[in-house]
Every structure is written in structure tokens, then in C-alpha cells.
Specification:
By secondary structure, this protein is of the alpha/beta class. Helix content is about 45%, strand content about 5%. Strands 7-8-4-3-9-13-11-14 form an eight-stranded mixed sheet, with helices on both faces. The chain has a three-stranded mixed sheet with strand order 10-15-12. It has a two-stranded antiparallel ribbon with strand order 1-2. InterPro entries: Cellulose_synth, Nucleotide-diphossugar_trans.
């Protein structure tokens, strides 16, 4: 069987399944024929009919027990030509190519700039500066690195595409008239670690938006992982579950958007989408009152828990020194972290907890009561069921490395497999809420469409609220999300960025894709070049229902011991790719939450469960780095899996940005350190498998090396200014060709930027703001990351980071952006401050030398001074963050700059021994050197300035 293309896949399926019936093993890609049981397709009983019914560009019919329509067409372009096509024959998503008028010049200019930059570097190498040879050598190395890193960033953007989900087709295919659905199950993971740094109200709003999302209620389960193990988080979720009984039906009745209550009630206008305007106004007023009471209860929880615990402990007559427990509302002791830490009840030392807050709903709609005196809300025509909600706090014990978020995600994966075992998993941070109720359906479109059985995950862009209108610290990062990730979708797919990502569960278990097609629409022949030609044949015991019931695990890609000692968990893996073929007639296996099942769910979250297993290495989220997200996605890509990018409007998910400059720098420090850790690990993309798309490998190399730019950038932001003082410059004498190369390099850069913002759908201002913060991050966080990782590599020291705080401390009513400008000192600010001072002093010295007569021509130094001010202009947001506040005029920044500039110039002129006698001798040469120096470094630096964010 040669699974590299669509025809080979069809022939193999027909040979494996036979003419008249599918294999009884129940897997879409037949395990008995030797293929891995991993494809997301129709149940195997329908595969033969799908293969026979499918025609070129069409989707075969499926029965009520199956939930994936398989597109067997070889056409992967999805040109979106749906005119005149019946809705049942249309794909659930379409692929739109970027207009040729933008894309073709974009590609040509990339290679034109590459040639011009190469000639420029050759010119620089052939024109030495013997007066300052060490500066010349260092500058050549920097310019070479800037060009190389620009190329790494640019090459993966050769084939950007847009994928658009078609929710109308999805509903037509999978939703039934009785309100039930054939859509696959979805487990949503929400992680939190500190209810004080991550506001508990924000977490509650995220949970409420998930419960209210437009997805089949019985197929949607929400898991909250609380790594703090605090009763505060649990009781907040209990309150959220109570309020959800009002909020969720209200959203369904009136089509509320967004479905996070805090964001909805902050809207200035409330567009009506329901049946009765008057009914809507009354319902909204009532729900708003309920929400205000809900917030009051949330804000008072900490005090209530402490007061309750003090009362229970006092009633027990505890003596001094005896541990004082934390008590739940039902009079039982909390098993997690206590308010007053004690043995087995402190941070990093507590038992595991799995509590079901909302039970799994029935499979038929349940309408609410009509309006009455006790219940003014009329939900008589509204389905009031809630999705299942589960609170999880994994066990933590001293002496165990709990692996932070990656460990929590792996524990959730095992726990959810025991309870619900949905074939797809969506992970969200606790500060990200569902802004578009259709987001879950949009993501599923990319898992159910044509050729989707090889898709490991679907990545959504990150969007943020609470960002000032000017986006001073580039929190939105649109160049990365809408530029880089969209472009990678035209290769093997976007990288995994940690949140807002929809996974195929079995990819986390170490399975290989059913076939390899790394070429994509840009290089389709690569799919056949790297196609897998054989599979390891699994045990035949998997071919019967009885064998599955007995827990035979011969099909696993790794030995059973790699998954841990839980038979219940390992038995769940065969059914992880789709609803079990041995389920009930409705196609739903049912969820059991009895005491034995909950006990097993707790057992798979124990601290010792992963000992001597493959978790964190070959299974689940990968350990050993602070950027477990990038590595986890990378490990899937090198197996041949693909990913897709899903950007919809209104935005799918919205999170909370870091609240000030300090927190933003720490966030970037954590990301850049993790990137370098990957480079110095066995996950270095240079050594990835041949299943990795060539340009995808280039993208991963860029991701893991971009912080090294800080080393050369520090040189280029300080030496030009110091050259005015020392008189030693990089370039001795520029020529006409030098200016030609420089003009081409800069001109193509600007044109490329314009074309990129056009096809990416961002603005020039966002592109420039991204460049400004890139300068700040490079001079601070990137440089610190390089130092930290080098220390780790040389001295074998682990790197620790604090959790990014997103809890505002200022008065948001007076100024919602006040906390963005609160100065919280950190050592990361030292280097940018030094660079600012050096450039101000250098410009002042150049100005003084002209006034003093050492340099008689302004044009001789204009280039160098312009570059100094160019550096200062890019660091302006940093300076404003240090000295200014939102709403205040930034004049204070300009005043400080001007004051330093004038004082330096005056001192230079009035202290003769600084510059010595005979200043006018050789002023022409110095001027020429300054001007040439500006040209060389500006051309090289601009090539990188707006590359990787």
C-alpha cells in the first residue's frame, strides 16, 4: 500500500475492507490490514460505501452512526467554487489562494532583495577599513546574521493561503432536526495555577463562555485544571455553574454575542438577535442583576472561606500548633491546599482531586420552565441543558518534578480519557474566553473536511483585550499571527502557540498519521517523495469486539507500559479516534461518573503515575522546556502530521494581555528562553525527520534561533554612537555601487512590507509597532534569554520563571489603561536605558563637533546622526513606558532627551581636553567615515528589523 496520494489511499481501503463490508475492528483506516488506527474518517463499516459513492471533488454519503464525511478527492486546492453546487456536495471548508497581483511580486522581491543583499555583503568584505579592523570584522558578522535571519523569516512566507470554514455546510451535514447532532465529542481544557495572579473572575467568565458555546451540549465537556489546589478556585467554579443555569439559556434564547458575561455587559450597544425586543430588554435586565450578584459572591469568596474555616476549627477546639483545616460548604475538609499550609495540604504537597460540578447531560433537549412569579425568565422554548463541567487538581508531592503547564495538560488528557474520551481536545488559558459562539464549530470544520485525517491540530490566532488603542507594547502581535502563521498554513501548517488550539486526541498518544503528505499545495510531489510505504502490523486480537473489551493493546505505537499502569486509560485509546463502533444506536457511548470511575480518574493524575513511562517524551505535551507548546507541535510535524490555521471574525477567542511593560518583558523572556532551549536540545529542527516540510524546517530553525539577534543588535545600536566619540568607523569610503545596493535593499524591504500587510490583512502601523517592540525585546529579553540558556548549557542549571501577572492593581474606572504604565522595575530594563543614553550622547557629541569646527559639513555626519535618532525612535515606547502614563502628554520623554542632548554638547564644547587640539584636522575623512558607516549598518539592520516578532 502506497499511502502518499488519494488514489493509493482508495485502492488500499478497498483492498482492506473488501467489496461488501468493512472490517469489524471499527477503525477508519483498517488496523487489521496493517495501517495505524488513527484516521478521523467515517466508521469502517461505512468506508466501502464511501469509497464507492465518492467522485472527484465530492463527499460520500454517510449514515447516522458516522460523524465524518470523507472527501476522497485528490484536489486539495479547494478553490471555493461553490456556485451551483448542492450544499451536500460542498466541502466544510474552502481554501482561498492569495491574489496573484500581491503574491507574485512578493515572491520575486524576496529573491531580488536576497541577491542585492548578497552583493552588498560582498562589497563590504572587499572594502576593508584598516583603521578599525575589529569593527569591520564584527560588522560583517552582524550583517551576515541579519541577512540570514531575515531569510529564515521570509522563506516560509512564500505560499500564504486563507482557509474559510463553511458552517452552513457543517450544520446541514451533522445537525439533525430533533436537535441532536452527529458532530464529534470535544473536551475543552482550561488551565490555571494561581487565583491571585490570574483573576478568578476572569477564569469564571472563560468557563461560562465555554458552557454557552454553540456546540452540541452532550458532546461538549469542560475541564478546569487548578494547579494551586485551592478551595477558592473550586467554589468560584461552583458559583459559575449556578449562574450558568441562567446565563446559558439567556444566550441561546437571544443569540447573545460574545458569550463571556463580563465582556458582553461592557458593550456600549447590545444588538438584538432574538424574537421579542421587549422580552430581550427584560431578560437582559434580570440577567445583569444576577451577574452583579454573582460577581459579589466571587469577590467575597476568600473572606467567606476563611470565616467558615475559622468557625469550624474553633468548634473543634483546636489547640495551639494543631493544623487548621480549610472547610468546604458541606462541612467536609478540603483535600487540596489549605489557607494555613499544613502537611499534605500546602502548595506542591496535596492529594489529587476530581469533582464533577455539572453532570453529563441527556441526549435529548430539555426545555426550561415558563415565566412565573418566582422565575421571571421565560425559558419554555429554550434548551436549558449544560455541558459537563469537571474540576481537576492533580496530585503534587515533594520530590517530584510536576513539569508546570505541560504536566497539568498531560494529567488532564488521561483524566478526560477515563471520563469522556472525546476524540478532539481544545486547550485554552484561563484568561481566554470564547468570543464567537461558533468558534468550536469553525475549528471542527478543519478536522472533518477533505484530507483532514492527517491534521493533528488547528491553531487559532491569539487576540487580546485590555490593550491601549496604540498597542504600545505590541501585545496584539498581528504580524506573527496573521502573517507568519497564515503563511505556514500553506506549508505543513502553523506552529502550536500554547492556547486556542484544537487537537486530535490520538496525536498526543504517539500515533503516526495514516499517510504522509508534507508537500501541501506549494510542493505536492513531496507527499509522494516522503510517503510511508509500510506500517507495523498490529495484533489480530484487535479485530473483534471481545478483544477490545478484554483490553488488548497490540495496536499501540508504544508498549503498554509507556502509557502507565491504568488499564482503564489504555482501554480508552482504541476509541479515541471516533465514537466507538460498539456504542449504542444513537452513536454515543455515554459517560459514566460513578465512584469507581472518579477514583480511576484521580489515580491517573497522581504525581507518581508518569514514572518510567513515555509521558513528556513520546506521549503528550513534551517536557524539558518552558515552551512546551512549540516542541509538542514540532514533534507532531516531524512524524508527518499537518496543522491548520483558523482565523474567523468575530474573533474566536480573546484573552487578557500582560498589564504593564515589566510583565510583557518577562513574557517575552520566557518565550525566547524556551526557543533557545529547543535549539540546544534533541528537538533541534536541524535534525528533524525527512517528514518535515523543507520550509517548515526553516520556520522552526527561525523560531529557535531568533534570540541570537540580540548579540549583534546590541553592537549596532551602540557602536555607531560611540564612533562619533572615538573617531573609528566601520566603513572607510562608500562608492556608487554601495549606494545602489543600499537603495535596493531598503526599497525592496519597504515594498515587501506593504505587500505583506496587504495579504496578511494588517496595517502598516501594526507592522511598524511590531518593529518598535522588536527593538525593545531584542535589547532586553532576547539578550537575557541568550545569557540564561548559555548558563544552563554550561553549568547545567535549571531556569525558573514566575507566572505572568494579569491582575490589574489600578483604578480601572478612572483609566482602564492606567496599569499599563505603572513602572515596576526589572533588571531587563537596564540594557535599553544604556542604549538610549549612548545614542543621545553620541548624537550630542557629533552636534558639538560640528559647532566646534572639528567637522565643517553637516552632511558628513547627517547619516550617522539620523541612524541614532532612528534607534531612539524605535525605543520611544519603552521610554514612554518608563516615564509616561496613559492620558498624559509624552512631552516629558522629549524633554529628558533634549536635556541630556544639550548638556552633553555643552560639556563637550567647553571642556577642551575631551576632544583635544587640532580638531579640524582630518574632519573631512571623519565625515566621510561617518556617512559610510551609517549606510552599511542601516541597510543590514533594516533587513531584520521587522522579521520574527
Amino acid at each position: 500500500m502506497a499511502p502518499g496520494g488519494g488514489e493509493g489511499r482508495r485502492n488500499g481501503e478497498q483492498q482492506a475492507n473488501g467489496k461488501n463490508g468493512g472490517c469489524v475492528c471499527g477503525f477508519p483506516v483498517c488496523a487489521c490490514a496493517g495501517a495505524a488506527a488513527v484516521a478521523s474518517a467515517a466508521s469502517s463499516a461505512d468506508m466501502d460505501r464511501v469509497a464507492v459513492a465518492a467522485t472527484e471533488g465530492q463527499i460520500g454519503a454517510v449514515n447516522d452512526e458516522s460523524w465524518v464525511a470523507v472527501d476522497l478527492s485528490d484536489d486539495l486546492s479547494g478553490d471555493g467554487g461553490d456556485d451551483g453546487v448542492a450544499i451536500e456536495d460542498r466541502p466544510v471548508f474552502r481554501t482561498e489562494k492569495i491574489k496573484g497581483i500581491l503574491l507574485h511580486p512578493y515572491r520575486v522581491l524576496i529573491f531580488v532583495r536576497l541577491i542585492a543583499f548578497t552583493l552588498f555583503v560582498i562589497w563590504r568584505i572587499s572594502h576593508r577599513n584598516p583603521d578599525a579592523l575589529w569593527l569591520w570584522v564584527t560588522s560583517i558578522a552582524g550583517e551576515f546574521w541579519f541577512g540570514f535571519s531575515w531569510l529564515l523569516d521570509q522563506l516560509p512566507k512564500l505560499n500564504p493561503i486563507n482557509r474559510v470554514p463553511d458552517l452552513t455546510v457543517l450544520r446541514q451535514r451533522f445537525d439533525r432536526a430533533d436537535g441532536t447532532s452527529r458532530l464529534p465529542g470535544l473536551d475543552i481544557f482550561v488551565t490555571t495555577a494561581d487565583p491571585f495572579k490570574e483573576p478568578i473572575l476572569s477564569t469564571a467568565n472563560s468557563i461560562l463562555s465555554i458552557l454557552a458555546a454553540d456546540y452540541p451540549v452532550e458532546k461538549n465537556t469542560c475541564y478546569l485544571s487548578d494547579d494551586s489546589g485551592m478551595l477558592l478556585t473550586y467554589e468560584a467554579m461552583v458559583e459559575a455553574a449556578k449562574f450558568a443555569t441562567v446565563w446559558v439559556p439567556f444566550c441561546r434564547k437571544h443569540g447573545i454575542e460574545p458569550r463571556g458575561p463580563e465582556s458582553y455587559f461592557e458593550l456600549k450597544s447590545h444588538p438584538y438577535m432574538g424574537r421579542s425586543q421587549e422580552d430581550f430588554v427584560n431578560d437582559r435586565r434580570r440577567v445583569r442583576k444576577e451577574y452583579d450578584e454573582f460577581k459579589a459572591r466571587i469577590n467575597g469568596l476568600e473572606h467567606d472561606i476563611k470565616q467558615r474555616s475559622d468557625a469550624y476549627n474553633a468548634a473543634r477546639g483546636l489547640k495551639d500548633g494543631e493544623p487548621r483545616a480549610t472547610w468546604m460548604a458541606d462541612g467536609s475538609q478540603w483535600e487540596g491546599t489549605w489557607v494555613e499550609p499544613s502537611e499534605n495540604h500546602r502548595k506542591g504537597d496535596h492529594t489529587g482531586i476530581v469533582l464533577v460540578l455539572v453532570n453529563h447531560p441527556s441526549h435529548s433537549r430539555q426545555f426550561g420552565p415558563p415565566a412565573s412569579a418566582d422565575n421571571p425568565l421565560d425559558f419554555s422554548m429554550v434548551d436549558t441543558r449544560l455541558p459537563m463541567l469537571v474540576y481537576v487538581s492533580r496530585e503534587k508531592r515533594p520530590g517530584f518534578n510536576h513539569e508546570k503547564k505541560a504536566g497539568a495538560m498531560n494529567a488532564l488528557t488521561r483524566c478526560s480519557a477515563v471520563l469522556t474520551n472525546s476524540p478532539f481536545i481544545l486547550n485554552l488559558d484561563c484568561d481566554h474566553y470564547i468570543n464567537n459562539s461558533q468558534a468550536l464549530r469553525a475549528g471542527i470544520c478543519f478536522m472533518l473536511g477533505r484530507d483532514s485525517d492527517t491534521v493533528a491540530f488547528v491553531q487559532f490566532p491569539q487576540r487580546f483585550e485590555g490593550v491601549d488603542p496604540t498597542d504600545l507594547y505590541a501585545n496584539h502581535n498581528r504580524i506573527f499571527f496573521d502573517g507568519t502563521l497564515r503563511a505556514l498554513d500553506g506549508m505543513q501548517g502553523p506552529i502550536y502557540v500554547g492556547t486556542g488550539c484544537l487537537f486530535r486526541r490520538i496525536t498526543l498518544y504517539g500515533f503516526d498519521p495514516p499517510r504522509i503528505n508534507v508537500g501541501g499545495p506549494c510542493f505536492p510531489k513531496l507527499g509522494g517523495m516522503f510517503a510511508k510505504t509500510k506500517y507495523e502490523k498490529p495484533g489480530l486480537e484487535m479485530t473483534t469486539k471481545a478483544a477490545v473489551a478484554k483490553g488488548k493493546h497490540g495496536f499501540l505505537p508504544l508498549p503498554k507500559k509507556s502509557y502507565g499502569k491504568s488499564d482503564a486509560f489504555v482501554d480508552s485509546i482504541p476509541r479515541a479516534s471516533h465514537p466507538s463502533p460498539f456504542a449504542n444506536a444513537a452513536g454515543d457511548a455515554g459517560v459514566v461518573t460513578d465512584e469507581a470511575t472518579i477514583t480511576e480518574a484521580v489515580a491517573v493524575t497522581t504525581a507518581a503515575y508518569e514514572k518510567k513511562t513515555g509521558w513528556g517524551s513520546n506521549i503528550g505535551w513534551v517536557y524539558g522546556t518552558v515552551t512546551e507548546d512549540v516542541v509538542t507541535g514540532y514533534r507532531m510535524h516531524i512524524k508527518g502530521w499537518r496543522s491548520r490555521y483558523c482565523s474567523i471574525y468575530p474573533h474566536a477567542f480573546i484573552g487578557t494581555a500582560p498589564i504593564n511593560l515589566t510583565e510583557r518583558l518577562y513574557q517575552v523572556l520566557r518565550w525566547s528562553t524556551g526557543s533557545l532551549e529547543i535549539f540546544f536540545s534533541r528537538n533541534n529542527p536541524l535534525f528533524g525527520s525527512t517528514f518535515l516540510h523543507p520550509l517548515q524546517r526553516v520556520a522552526y530553525i527561525n523560531i529557535t534561533t531568533y534570540p541570537f539577534t540580540a548579540i549583534f543588535l546590541i553592537f549596532y545600536t551602540t557602536v555607531p554612537a560611540l564612533s562619533f566619540v572615538t573617531g573609528h568607523f566601520i566603513v572607510q569610503r562608500p562608492t556608487t555601487m554601495f549606494y545602489v545596493y543600499l537603495a535596493i535593499v531598503l526599497g525592496t524591504l519597504l515594498i515587501l512590507a506593504v505587500l505583506e500587510v496587504k495579504w496578511a490583512g494588517v496595517t502598516v502601523f501594526e507592522w511598524f509597532r511590531n518593529g518598535q517592540f522588536w527593538m525593545t525585546a531584542s535589547c532586553s529579553a532576547y539578550l537575557a534569554a541568550v545569557c540564561q540558556v548559555l548558563v544552563k548549557v554550561v553549568f547545567r542549571r535549571d531556569i525558573s520563571f514566575k507566572l505572568t501577572s494579569k491582575q490589574p492593581a489600578g483604578d480601572e474606572k478612572k483609566d482602564p489603561y492606567a496599569d499599563l504604565y505603572v513602572v515596576r522595575w526589572t533588571w531587563l530594563m537596564v540594557t535599553p536605558i544604556i542604549i538610549i543614553m549612548v545614542n543621545i550622547v553620541g548624537s550630542a557629541v557629533a552636534f558639538a563637533k560640528v559647532l566646534d569646527g572639528e567637522w565643517t559639513h553637516w552632511l558628513k555626519v547627517a547619516g550617522g546622526v539620523f541612524f541614532n535618532f532612528w534607534v531612539l525612535f524605535h525605543l520611544y515606547p519603552f521610554a514612554k513606558g518608563l516615564l509616561g502614563r496613559h492620558g498624559k502628554t509624552p512631552v516629558v520623554v522629549l524633554v529628558w532627551w533634549a536635556f541630556t542632548f544639550v548638556i552633553t554638547a555643552v560639556l563637550y564644547i567647553n571642556i577642551p581636553h575631551i576632544h583635544g587640539p587640532g580638531g579640524k584636522h582630518g574632519h573631512g575623512a571623519l565625515g566621510r567615515h561617518a556617512h559610510g558607516h551609517h549606510g552599511g549598518k542601516l541597510g543590514a539592520f533594516e533587513g531584520e528589523a521587522y522579521g520574527w516578532p
